[in-house]
Specification:
Radius of gyration: 17 Å
CATH class of the largest domain: Alpha Beta
Order of helices and strands: EHEEHEEEEHHHEEEEE
Strand content: 25-35%
């Protein structure tokens, strides 16, 4: 995984790759320092939710990014999600959908419309206050852990081995992710540029779907803003911007063809 990384630290077992990379950032690690682990014991997603990180069951990786020109967080989460989606598509050959702001979905079984969450992104600010950087954590489910029931943290999850129908090499996916991160966030932009916006919109699972935001009125997903917010068209025709929180779709998400 040397290509694209300035430094790589690989662990057999670790509480959290994001936490370890935050330590390295405070010590002055350069951008594109990478922390990998075969297993995380305290992996997490947004708001501290547990992210199941069983041994050798996925890609558990964190990458240190430079901040956007205007300072973090900008639209980094969306750009990292786009990079991860493109990497998965290139390596696994499956279509990836993006659910605002940080979830990636694939078909659970080839040839069906049912989709499930296969990956997530967690971006956090780290490093010295005078020059903060961004720790971008990415977790990708490669295979279902032996004996794991479809409940708890794995409820509704997808696994690339089941979706792609073939075994995938973790290091190959990690290398593809670094290539895409170098393309989209070196350094990150303060806004979604037209090319990135088009790529995101082509994978936007909430577009045209009835959604219930945590903050703001329910309505139909109407795309994303250049600042990374979600547009929601309410029943009265007004368009509202959702800048944070969670968004619940009214039905199971379906991937677009293409």
């Amino acid at each position: 995984m040397a290509a694209g990384a300035s430094r790589v630290e690989a662990h057999d077992r670790i509480p959290s790759t994001n936490d370890r990379l935050r330590e390295l950032a405070r010590e002055g690690a350069p951008p594109f320092t990478v922390v990998l682990a075969r297993e995380q014991t305290e992996g997490r997603g947004r708001r501290g939710r547990r992210w199941a990180s069983a041994r050798d069951a996925g890609l558990w990786v964190s990458v240190l990014l430079p901040p956007p020109p205007g300072g973090p967080p900008g639209v980094v989460t969306l750009l990292v999600g786009l990079a991860a989606a493109r990497a998965i598509e290139a390596v696994a050959g499956v279509r990836v959908g993006l659910k605002w702001p940080n979830d990636l979905f694939v078909r659970r079984v080839p040839g069906t419309s049912e989709s499930g969450k296969v990956a997530g992104v967690l971006c956090e600010v780290a490093g010295p206050a005078v020059a903060p950087r961004i720790v971008a954590g990415v977790g990708v489910n490669l295979r279902r852990p032996a004996g794991a029931a479809e409940e708890g943290a794995l409820k509704g999850a997808s696994f690339l081995l089941e979706s792609a129908g073939e075994e995938l090499v973790r290091d190959r996916l990690a290398e593809a992710l670094l290539v895409e991160l170098r393309r989209w966030v070196d350094p990150p932009s303060d806004r979604l540029e037209p090319g990135a916006a088009a790529e995101w919109e082509a994978r936007d699972l909430l577009y045209g779907e009835w959604v219930v935001p945590e903050f703001g009125p329910a309505g139909t997903g109407a795309g994303i803003t250049s600042e990374g917010g979600l547009r929601v068209r309410a029943e009265d025709g007004g368009v509202h911007e959702v800048g944070g929180g969670s968004v619940l779709p009214s039905r199971a998400l379906r991937l677009r063809e293409g």
